[in-house]
């Protein structure tokens, strides 16, 4: 019998092997492993894990069913709260949410809730179990803008309530950041994302791709001419930031968004697809978030030596510990307390290196983290052919600038009520990164869920 | 799927298509572009809108074969479809959104180069329909590469055609025609709109700057999504970095850093060349030609 204080270990591809392919890193639990892990759950009456879940999944109940081997029932319980369990089981920061609150975690390792959720969702998919469309439609039309985590969740919840929901997606595939941002090796596109999108469609949700709200049509037209009674904006935070240092427009400098979009959405890693990508030999990724880890591990798989260049120390890395751990295992080099000052270019304006300066940590700043301060005279040069800027993103102004009466704050985020998603414009709701700025998949799902409730209340009162 | 209603070879490597895309046709204005994708594996190809029919719900595009994707696109026939067709992207030409009375006061010169004639056409047509006749210079390397001559003639004030080799119309570059018109033929212009290859727009801007004519150019850098997400299309305009897809594609030509833009446009040139050769020659191409970089 395994140590009850420890998680049942999850199988992964070996670091050396996976660093050269785009297959999923984590292989997940099998039946026996899942049931063994579920048996560690002590089924708390006052389940703290649920309080840590932004979409309030009944965690003890589904784990109990896993323990008993009733996987279909476990799936049904999760589906009541989440439309995207195979995705959440893979990309949620469980360590700071459900697992972070787990009582087992006080004196040992918490229950591996994320891996169990993933197991249940994968089992359901492999066994052809799908959510079914509600028998009765209520005849009310709702438009959802964006098919990322918040949009899919909001649409799924509204469809379950009988609404006639259409999602409008600007890109040519549904999924938003799940498709263009998060790489295949963390979140398989066909197997997992497309399957969960199909599940949302199975609830009766229609998805129209290639429609850019603010360009192809507007929110006002959707409401006045196409008969939509309410609109949810889940358009995400898609605009990349750059540093503003010399040489940043050189060939070989990419935003993480561009690099990841070429690779994930356009599948540039696969020779059968037409879109090219720069397969650098020596790549620096500037930034320390999850997106930076994704870009670094992608570049590694495309054959490069990869450096993460981050101006603070390891303790301040905003990325999940698991992502940093995986990146290190695969061979990504961390140049911490290092800040770029200039991109160096050759005679053809192509990247040949990056001038950096060493940093040290000073007094805490407004965010509570110790402020990085440059060490005078510590400049040095890194020889590189590719630089990927992963400094965060901001919301796209396309919708706010074309919708009359929709208020935004100074960061261009749409202003929306936290509990209902209601914006300054009647009948228009918003949530996810478009409201909060860049955050996580599960927080966006939580906002989509709250807005679905808000929209239902709004339309029920009319 | 987006049905191709008409597909026509205009000349040499240049093709025209009418594509069914009612949402775009309803909302677009001259100066904007679309992104087309042939099939699942295709690239997203940005193309400036050449014409639109709001009633029929169609968009007209004109393109030249420059790589594997445009070569594949040229094989599509009426009755075939694009898997994806999205737009209208970018901002419309300011001529179509500024106060019409102010625009009417201006004497406008369009300078079109090669396949750039296509995006010039809807602007000239729009002005014509609003009672403004603009002069148009159309330049191409040789007679066979002149497109849309009859259509342009019907909507332009004066149409001046020039070929680099003198095989048709006037002889010489468009810049020479601009100088001749202003310096020799007594013309004066308050605004120039120049659309064509970047190198042509660059020299056009150098000429108009010398002549003191404010000039708008339409930039066509490498793009992926076309909605501001990737930043591949960034340009230096004055001392600011702009994204062509959302801030443009039209900019003050006298402020554009063309040298940087041209280098950025070359970023995947060898990759494009390799892809085109692979498409044409299949596995028989093993590099060694010294042109495409396939032997690197």
Care to describe what's here?
The complex is a heterodimer of chains A (462) and B (296). Chain A has 462 residues and is an alpha/beta fold. Chain A contains 17 helices and 18 strands. Chain A has a five-stranded parallel sheet. In chain A, strand 9, helix 14 (290-301) and strand 10 (305-309) form a beta-alpha-beta unit. The model of chain A has no long low-confidence stretch (mean pLDDT 93). In chain B, 49% of the residues are buried. Chain B starts with a strand and ends in a 15-residue tail after the last helix. Chain B has 296 residues and is of the alpha/beta class. Chain B has two domains: 2-89, Elongation Factor Tu (Ef-tu), domain 3; 94-218, 3-Layer(aba) Sandwich (Rossmann fold). Chain B is globular. In chain B, strand 12, helix 8 and strand 13 form a beta-alpha-beta unit. The model of chain B is unreliable at 283-296 (pLDDT under 50). Chains A and B meet through strand 7 and helix 13 of A and helix 1, strand 7, strand 14, helix 10 and helix 11 of B.
From the 3D structure, determine the CATH topology of the largest domain in chain B: Rossmann fold
Largest sheet geometry of chain A: 5 strands, parallel
Q: Any idea what the CATH superfamily of the largest domain in chain B is called?
A: Nucleotide-binding domain of ferredoxin-NADP reductase (FNR) module
Quaternary assembly:
heterodimer
Helix content of chain B: 25-40%
**How many individual domains of chain B?**
2
The major pleated sheet of chain B works out as: 7 strands, antiparallel
- What is the average per-residue confidence, as pLDDT of chain B, rounded to a whole number? 90
List its salient traits:
A: alpha/beta, five-stranded parallel β-sheet, 17 helices, 34% helix, globular, B: 296 residues, alpha/beta, Elongation Factor Tu (Ef-tu), domain 3, Rossmann fold, seven-stranded antiparallel β-sheet, seven-stranded mixed β-sheet, 16 strands, 31% helix
């Amino acid at each position: 019998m395994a140590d009850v204080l420890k998680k049942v270990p999850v199988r992964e591809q070996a670091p050396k092997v996976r660093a050269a392919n785009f297959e999923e890193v984590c292989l997940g639990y099998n039946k026996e492993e899942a049931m063994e892990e579920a048996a560690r759950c002590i089924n708390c009456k006052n389940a703290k894990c649920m309080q840590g879940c932004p979409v309030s999944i009944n965690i003890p109940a589904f784990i109990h069913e896993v323990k008993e081997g009733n996987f279909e029932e476990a799936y049904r319980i999760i589906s009541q709260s989440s439309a995207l369990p195979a995705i959440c089981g893979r990309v949620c920061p469980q360590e700071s949410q459900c697992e972070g609150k787990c009582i087992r975690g006080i004196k040992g390792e918490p229950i591996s809730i994320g891996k169990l959720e993933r197991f249940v969702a994968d089992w359901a998919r492999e066994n052809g179990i799908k959510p079914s469309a509600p028998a009765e439609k209520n005849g009310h039309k709702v438009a959802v803008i964006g098919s990322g985590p918040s949009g899919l969740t909001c649409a799924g919840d509204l469809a379950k309530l009988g609404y006639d929901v259409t999602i409008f997606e600007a890109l040519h595939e549904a999924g938003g950041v799940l498709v263009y941002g998060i790489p295949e090796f963390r979140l398989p596109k066909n197997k997992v994302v497309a399957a969960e999108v199909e599940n949302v469609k199975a609830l009766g949700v229609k998805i129209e791709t290639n429609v850019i709200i603010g360009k192809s049509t507007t929110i006002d037209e959707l409401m006045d001419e196409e008969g939509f009674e309410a609109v949810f904006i889940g358009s995400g935070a898609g605009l990349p930031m750059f540093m503003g240092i010399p040489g940043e427009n050189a060939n070989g400098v990419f935003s993480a968004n561009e690099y990841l979009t070429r690779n994930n959405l356009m599948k540039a890693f696969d020779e059968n697809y037409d879109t090219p990508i720069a397969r650098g030999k020596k790549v620096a990724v500037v930034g320390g978030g999850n997106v930076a880890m994704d870009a670094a591990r992608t570049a590694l798989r495309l054959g490069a030596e990869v450096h993460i260049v981050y101006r603070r120390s390891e303790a301040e890395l905003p990325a999940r510990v698991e992502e940093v751990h995986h990146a290190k295992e695969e061979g990504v080099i961390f140049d911490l307390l290092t800040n770029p000052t200039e991109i160096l270019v050759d005679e053809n304006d192509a990247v040949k290196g990056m001038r950096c300066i060493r940093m040290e940590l000073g007094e805490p700043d407004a965010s509570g983290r110790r402020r990085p301060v440059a060490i005078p005279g510590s400049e040095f040069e890194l020889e590189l052919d590719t630089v990927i800027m992963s400094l965060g993103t901001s919301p796209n102004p396309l919708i706010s600038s074309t919708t009359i009466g929709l208020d935004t704050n100074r960061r261009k985020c749409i202003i929306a009520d936290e509990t209902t998603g209601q914006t300054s414009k009647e009948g228009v709701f918003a949530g996810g990164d478009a409201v909060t700025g860049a955050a996580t998949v599960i927080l966006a799902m939580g906002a989509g869920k709250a807005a679905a409730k808000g929209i239902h209340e709004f339309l029920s009162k009319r | 799927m987006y049905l191709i209603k008409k597909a026509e070879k205009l000349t040499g490597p240049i093709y025209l298509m009418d594509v069914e895309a009612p949402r775009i046709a309803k909302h677009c204005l001259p100066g904007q572009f679309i992104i087309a994708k042939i099939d699942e594996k295709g690239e997203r190809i940005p193309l400036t809108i050449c014409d639109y029919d709001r009633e029929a719900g169609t968009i007209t595009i004109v393109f030249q074969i420059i790589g594997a994707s445009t070569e594949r696109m040229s094989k599509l026939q009426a009755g075939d479809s694009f898997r994806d067709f999205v737009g209208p992207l970018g901002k419309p030409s300011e001529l179509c959104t500024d106060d019409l009375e102010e625009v009417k006061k201006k004497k406008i010169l369009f300078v079109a180069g090669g396949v750039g004639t296509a995006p010039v056409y809807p602007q000239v047509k729009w002005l014509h329909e609003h009672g403004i006749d603009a002069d148009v210079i159309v330049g191409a390397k040789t007679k066979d590469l002149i497109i849309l001559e009859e259509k342009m003639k019907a909507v332009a004030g004066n149409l001046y055609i020039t070929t680099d080799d003198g095989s048709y119309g006037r002889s010489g570059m468009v810049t020479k025609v601009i100088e001749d018109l202003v310096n020799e033929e007594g013309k004066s212009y308050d605004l120039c709109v120049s659309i064509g290859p970047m190198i042509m727009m660059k020299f056009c801007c150098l000429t108009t700057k010398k002549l003191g004519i404010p000039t708008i150019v339409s930039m066509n850098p490498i793009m992926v999504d076309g909605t501001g997400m990737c930043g591949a299309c960034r340009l230096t305009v004055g001392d600011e970095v702009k994204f062509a897809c959302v801030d443009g594609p039209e900019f003050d030509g006298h402020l554009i850093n063309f040298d940087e833009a041209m280098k950025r446009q070359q970023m995947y040139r060898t990759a494009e060349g390799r892809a085109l050769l692979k498409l044409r020659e299949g596995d028989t191409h093993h590099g060694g030609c010294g042109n495409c970089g396939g032997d690197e």
